[in-house]
Amino acid sequence: MEEDKIIRFASRMDYLPPYLFGMINKMKMEKRRNGDDVIDLGMGNPMDPTPDAVIEKLVNVAKDPKSHRYPESSGLPNLKKEIAKYYGRHYNITLDADKETYFTIGSKEGISHLCLAIMGPGDCVLVPAPAFPIHIYAAVIAGANVMRIPLEPEKGFLDRIITVCESCYPSPKVLMLNYPHNPTGVVTDKNFFKEVVKLAKRFKFMVINDFAYGKITYDGYVAPSFLEIEGAKDVGVEFGSFSKSYNMAGWRIGYCVGNEKIVEALGKIKGYFDYGIFSAIQVAGIIALRDCDDTIPGLAKIYENRRDVLCSGLERIGWDITRPKAGMFVWAKIPEPFNKMGSMEFAIQLMNNGNVAVAPGAGFSEEGEGYLRLALVENEERLRQAVRQMKKAMDQMKI
Ligand SMILES: Cc1ncc(COP(=O)(O)O)c(C=O)c1O
Questions:
Q1: I need a labelling partner for 107 at 20 to 30 A (CA). Which of 61, 136, 257, 285 fits?
Q2: Which CATH number fits domain 52-293: 3.40.190.10, 3.40.640.10, 2.40.37.20, 3.40.50.720?
Q3: Confidence (pLDDT) at 152
Q4: Where does the record place the Aminotransferase class I/classII large domain (predicted)?
């Protein structure tokens, strides 16, 4: 009792529900400790290896004591030049390497700290929903108010933004975007981004585009960068990640590119919090950006094949599936009558009775209820097995 008076947390903690992936992971670990072979489609944590050349560079540079010192926090000059060249090569965008690029300890860290730098109490942030949790909670932690905008239909999405901007005072300060989108796999085109830039200028809001899945695309679809649109740099930034394009999720390296003032604000706040990314990882990152363009299509093809295996399997057991054109997830509507039990309970039963871990849609906000997110991180054989085990679990479920 006495302890309750001593150990007290900041009020912002009251707004943070238990982290969805943490709960699912805990259940999975317990089962695995008991000897169960859980097929893990829960988290978007790539299982495939980082390209060899990147690993070799890390190993060599890590042996050099110079790399053990505090690193260059915004990114090594050559790494910053390399991301500028990458954007030039892939998207025909000119970036000032010095002022318009900043490297972060993964894009999640960057997005979180940028929110602390550009928003606070009294500010309103628009977030498409369902949403990857940090898109909502980074703003919540910063003390801002989040207004969720249902992601689909696309036309309705822009209309909702206009209505909110016209009726909300003070009007929204930031629009958070994420194309290709996690968890739904929804993609977009340059016309949509053009409209967004127009609205940002009309209603004076900043735009953040999380482009983590920019290169994991299927069926010939090419995802546009937000910065390809004329005037985009006047209103916003884009975050990218090495986690998915190069299977470097555990390395913790991502970047922010775009509007100079926003990039500067990110650097200012990060200067207080951290010292940047281990130099050896930064040098290895140069190799990824410079030499690994050719490995990306092969990696995307692996996910595309897995998507086909999983979607075909789910269709065979009667699920109505929309095949995503990008990302590394299948966003699957839970069929009747199982949808009545709610996505969390359904996911728990799939885990307990089928040894398959999935992410319940409700974890991506209320708009995700009724869905599951299945990560394409297991190989094709395991995905086929997962569908068989899901079917068996569903046959045993009491609704
Ligand atoms: C949409 C989205 N953004 C960002 C991240 C995190 O990327 P990083 O590993 O660069 O922090 C993820 C990871 O799953 C994601 O799905």
A1: 61
A2: 3.40.640.10
A3: 81
A4: 37-388
Residue 359 near residue 140 (C-beta atoms within 8 A)? no
8 A C-beta contact, residue 266 and residue 102: yes
Q: Strands 101-104 and 356-357, how do they pair?
A: unpaired
CA–CA gap between residue 183 and residue 44 (Å, rounded): 10
Question: Measuring from atom 6 of ligand 1, which residue has the nearest CA?
Answer: 108
Strand extents, DSSP E, the chain: 39-40, 101-104, 124-129, 145-150, 174-177, 206-210, 236-241, 254-258, 329-333, 356-357, 359-360, 371-375
Q: What pLDDT does residue 1 have?
A: 62
The greatest distance separating any two alpha carbons of the chain, rounded to the nearest whole angstrom, comes to: 62
Distance 8 CA to ligand 1 centre (A): 31
Q: pLDDT band for position 42 (50/70/90)?
A: very high
Q: How far, in Å, CA of 260 to CA of 258, rounded?
A: 6
Residues with CB under 6 Å of ligand 1 are: 44, 106-108, 132, 178, 182, 210, 212, 241, 243, 249, 254
Of all protein residues, the one whose alpha carbon is nearest to atom 14 of ligand 1 is 44
CA–centroid distance, 70 to ligand 1, in Å, is 25
The domains of the chain are located at 2-48+296-396, 52-293
Write the residue with the smallest CA distance to atom 5 of ligand 1: 108
- The DSSP element (H or E) to which 15 belongs, if any, is none
